[in-house]
Specification:
Oligomer: single chain
Largest sheet: 4 strands, antiparallel
Strand content: 15-25%
Number of strands: 7
Low-confidence stretches: 98-137
């Protein structure tokens, strides 16, 4: 499967790494207490197994993003998300298979895997971590994407340093809806479900 990183950037530009097994409290007072504790101690561990659930990173967001990643900001006024992503995926697949021999495909996949593995090691400190850049089921390849999603639908749209500003809808959407639409689209493209 495809492994993703979940990081959050706060208003004061701190990066918070979240473990995939974390369960965020639903009650605001518990949530607030958890984040106060995180900002004071810079780490939150699980009670039973001492697994690091949350960590404040020292580096900025740029440290965790590879140079070949396509950075996408979301905005109501952006270009159509589905058209641009489909075009990028088509160009990416055409570019890697242009020679009609497997060496070009294997070389491109090797480069991407190496870059993503390096990023993964920076973020997870896991020497075995590697990102798959294609679906095992459909053999569809996609370039590495980074999505910047505002937590609040009415806030300023991220546009500084983005390769594309794209729109999922002409209406303001919650962060959860944006994440759901993006995940659903890639599940369809990669033929996961």
């Amino acid at each position: 499967g495809r492994r993703t990183r979940n990081t959050n950037r706060t208003n004061n530009k701190k990066i918070i790494k979240l473990n995939k097994s974390i369960r965020i409290p639903r009650v605001y007072n518990r949530f607030n207490g958890l984040f106060v504790q995180l900002l004071e101690r810079h780490r939150i561990y699980s009670e039973e197994s001492r697994i690091e659930l949350m960590k404040v990173e020292k580096e900025g967001i740029e440290y965790f993003i590879s140079n070949d990643s396509i950075k996408i900001g979301l905005s109501q006024e952006g270009e159509n998300f589905y058209d641009i992503i489909k075009k990028n995926n088509t160009e990416y697949n055409t570019h890697t298979t242009v020679n009609n021999d497997n060496s070009a495909i294997n070389n491109a996949h090797s480069i991407i895997s190496d870059n993503n593995s390096t990023m993964s090691n920076k973020l997870y400190n896991d020497s075995t971590a590697e990102y798959n850049t294609h679906s095992v089921i459909s053999n569809t390849k996609i370039p590495p994407y980074v999505f910047y999603i505002n937590a609040i639908s009415s806030g300023d749209d991220p546009n500084k340093g983005m390769d594309y500003i794209l729109s999922l809808s002409s209406y303001a959407l919650s962060a959860a809806t944006c994440c759901s639409k993006i995940c659903t689209y890639f599940e369809e493209v990669l033929n996961i479900f």
